[in-house]
Design goal:
Elements lengths: L1 H30 L5 E5 L6 H17 L3 E5 L6 H8 L7 E6 H10 L11 E16 L8 H10 L5 E4 L5 H13 L4 E4 L3 H10 L4 E5 L4 H6 L3 E5 L24 E9 L4 H16 L1 H8 L4 E2 L4 H22 L5
Parallel strand pairs: 1-2, 1-3, 5-6, 5-7
Antiparallel strand pairs: 3-9, 4-7, 4-8, 4-9, 4-10
Helix pairs in contact: 2-9, 4-11, 6-11
């Protein structure tokens, strides 16, 4: 009898200890956020990723009454900062605003990756997309991308297309364009948008492939000609530029922004963040603010982000393998 009583007491104590051990985790999820939250941005301050992150951080800070602090950790094409999120404790106090580069493309570009974006990260919210533009010097006679490809095929030595760096989305879009049109384009890799833009305006190159943000003023003023945007629909800020698909060229290439957390993050925290981020960026003010960065709002549940990651993985893996693009 005494033995049974002792076993009962021991079992009850163990059960109580189990509940006690789980209580902090439950309380932490229920009271989140109880302290400042860090948003890791895997690129330097001042760029479009940083600006979008700071806009979202301000909105989340106002909503939750806790500071959401942007932490810039650039390097290795966004891998360093995104890895910091993947290796953080899944307690909701470290999340990241990353892009399609480290979340999708880099695993096919780098021989070694410090994290597995499919397993080590929890999708929280797709935020927005920046379409790419294929733009030309106005002296080029082509009125659109279809005509440009025709002219480049007929006289390849006369047409050179710039891109902002090996492995960038601007580079990969050109490789995709070459693949779907069966055209061997003469390309030049630059170190960023600015030097490429300078040469395009000066006539040293005839066209350029890059995210639209840096080129909006010159496209709007007519200093550059928009051959095509590579988004699924026309860019609202420059609606006169047709998409590549409208011209019979089957390609879509955008750089997209997303909030992610470490794997194992509480579903309640994910849902809370997803709801508020969607509200922030899809508001009238949010849409207008993001458009100043060249971005188009794209929101939905976490499953939308996972779907985007899966679909882009299939597309860019094929392009990267066919073009044999590597970064290390």
């Amino acid at each position: 009898m005494q033995r049974r009583t002792f076993q009962t007491v021991l079992a009850t104590a163990c059960l109580a200890a189990g509940f006690a051990g789980s209580a902090p985790a439950l309380a932490q999820s229920g009271n989140w956020p109880a302290k400042p939250v860090r948003i890791v941005v895997p690129f330097p301050a001042g760029g479009s990723t940083d600006l979008v992150a700071r806009f979202i951080a301000q909105g989340l800070s106002e909503k939750f009454g806790q500071a959401f602090i942007v932490d810039n950790r650039g390097g290795a094409g966004g891998n360093i900062g995104t890895d910091a999120v993947a290796k953080a404790a899944p307690d909701g106090y470290t999340i990241g605003l990353s892009t399609s580069g480290p979340l999708v493309n880099n695993k096919f570009l780098y021989k070694e990756m410090p994290f597995n974006s499919d397993k080590d990260l929890a999708p929280i919210a797709l935020v927005c997309e920046i379409p790419l533009v294929l733009t030309s010097n106005p002296k080029v006679p082509a009125k659109n991308l279809k005509e440009f490809i025709q002219q480049a095929k007929a006289n390849p030595d006369a047409y050179t297309v710039g891109q902002p760096g090996n492995g960038t989305i601007g580079h990969l879009a050109l490789e995709q364009l070459s693949l779907v049109t069966n055209t061997k384009l003469s390309t030049v890799a630059y170190r960023g948008d600015t030097p490429a833009l300078t040469d395009l305006l000066g006539g040293s190159i005839q066209a350029l492939s890059a995210p639209i943000t840096a080129f909006i003023p010159n496209l709007a003023s007519g200093k550059l000609h928009g051959l095509a945007v590579t988004s699924a629909t026309r860019y609202p800020g420059l609606p006169n530029i047709p998409t590549a698909k409208e011209q019979g060229i089957d390609m879509v290439a955008t750089v997209w922004f997303a909030i992610v957390g470490p794997a194992g993050l509480s579903p309640e925290i994910i849902k809370s963040l997803n709801t508020e981020i969607n509200n922030i960026v899809s508001s009238t003010y949010g849409k207008a603010k993001l458009q100043t960065y060249g971005a188009v709002v794209n929101v939905g549940p976490p499953t939308l982000l996972r779907k985007m990651m899966d679909e882009d993985s299939k597309k860019w893996q094929k392009v990267i393998a066919t073009a044999k693009v590597t970064l290390n």
